[in-house]
Each structure stands twice: as C-alpha cells, then as structure tokens.
Amino acid sequence: xxxxxxxxxxxxxxxxxxxxxxxxxxxxxxxxxxxxxxxxxxxxxxxxxxxxxxxxxxxxxxxxxxxxxxxxxxxxxxxxxxxxxxxxxxxxxxxxxxxxxxxxxxxxxxxxxxxxxxxxxxxxxxxxxxxxxxxxxxxxxxxxxxxxxxxxxxxxxxxxxxxxxxxxxxxxxxxxxxxxxxxxxxxxxxxxxxxxxxxxxxxxxxxxxxxxxxxxxxxxxxxxxxxxxxxxxxxxxxxxxxxxxxxxxxxxxxxxxxxxxxxxxxxxxxxxxxxxxxxxxxxxxxxxxxxxxxxxxxxxxxxxxxxxxxxxxxxxxxxxxxxxx
Length: 325
Known about the structure:
Largest sheet: 5 strands, antiparallel
Number of strands: 12
Structural class: alpha+beta
Helix content: 40-55%
C-alpha cells in the first residue's frame, strides 16, 4: 500500500512540478505528516526530491528525473485519460486506484506528448452528471468499507455474507456465492447464487458485508454478459407490465426515462414512433403515460387504455363547467 503511495507521490510531482505538503496530502488522502515521512523515504531511496522554502515553496523533483513506466503511445494514453473520469471513477469503489493509474498513464508519455494528451483529454466529456434538460443523474452511494469486502470476495472466490434490505423488507443477513459485479447507469449490482439459485443484489442496499473463508460454489470461468442478459430477461418477465405506445419523437426520451426497459422501437408513417416498453406495474404505466399527455397513446393493453380514459374523462368533467367560486 505504501509503495503505491510513494509511486503516486513521485508521479504527482512529475506532473505538476512543485506541490506543497498540504496539496500532496489532499491528493493522496493521507495526513501531512505521512507526506513528510514519505518524502524522507523517497530521498533515502535515491529519488531526487527537494524542498523549496518560502511563500511559493513546496516539494519538487530535480529536472529530468523519470520513472521506469513506458509503453503507451499518444492515442492509447488519450483513450484512457478520456474514458477514465466520470462513471469509471465511482465503479466498485475503485476511484483512488483509477486516479493513481491515470497519473501513471500521464507519466508514461514522452515529454513531447504529455501536455498534448492531457489538453486533448480535457476536450472530451463522458457521461456528465446532468443532461441537456438539467436532469441530474442519481448515483447510488456504497460505503467504501462494504465495497472493498464485496470486491475482495468476488475476486478471491470466497463465500460472502451480506446484510441486505430487499424492497419493502427489513435488512437481514444472507450468505451467497458471488459471481461478479455489474454497473449500469451508475447503479451497481452483485451477481451471485444462493442455495443454487441465481440472485441479483443492488449494492446500494447492502448495509454490511463479511468475506467468509469458505470457497464459493461457482464455475471457474464466467460469461458475465450472458448472465446479466439472463437475469434481465427474468426480471422483466416477473410482475411487470409491457405496453405498446405511439409517441411523439420529441417526447421519446421522457418515455424511456420513466420506463423500466425498452424492448422494441420502430418509426411509423406519420412520423411518430411505435415502441414497446416495460413498466413496474399498471399503476406505474398509467402515471408515466399521463405525464406525456397527448404526445403518447397506449395501444395495448386495453386495461391501461381504459384507465387513462377514465382519468381523462374525470378531468374533463371537472373543468367543463364554470368555476366553483
């Protein structure tokens, strides 16, 4: 752990030139005293780090010092720098590791490419927190301590005890055999088996976790993409309502944002879209389509059309006469 921190410290100094102990402490998420001890350790190991006193002082490396990281060309580094920030830094509690890795990526570049790659990466924005309608993406937080335990059990192939709160239920302990981790639209999931049955657990609902010494009962090789598709198919078939909708293309994203899943989509001759979407239940579908007003029409099922008709009729009746004042 300390060795990684020492490498990160050197890379920070190489990238920024001169940094104060307080700045290094914030970047490395340690105390200032720890930074000073690390500086002493680097000096003792022969790394040419020196201190400059005064108002604009700090720590720096002698000019020309390089680490032994090599092998990345300009476009490879640019791809990592552009893709790294954003959702990736929050996935499965690996944010600090990603920050350290990106520092190594920058340092691996020749001097002539380092600045140009960093400047170019600043021109790319992947998955911002808000869209063009200023709707903020909701990121589900998972405590680092819990995420580390879950991640360690998944990678080590050990059984896992989790304190899990299913929807509408009080939290209770479960012992599972972890298979893998999946992140979808800033939501993390643990794929596992329990008593031989496939299970999917949302990580934000895991209150605590404990890695057990027993090996997990799982295959040695795994196809997470196939398993996720299977889990998704079963999820959508259980107690969900599938609706066929004609929608104004301008309201397409509003419809998709409110649905659980989109199963099919095709244009119609009049310019509208015919889409097949899934909602949690009839009440959810009625609410979602009501929000779209005349821009959407439920074609099936008939029960949903009847419910929307009843609601529209009641509203029309309410406003047909003069005001009640």
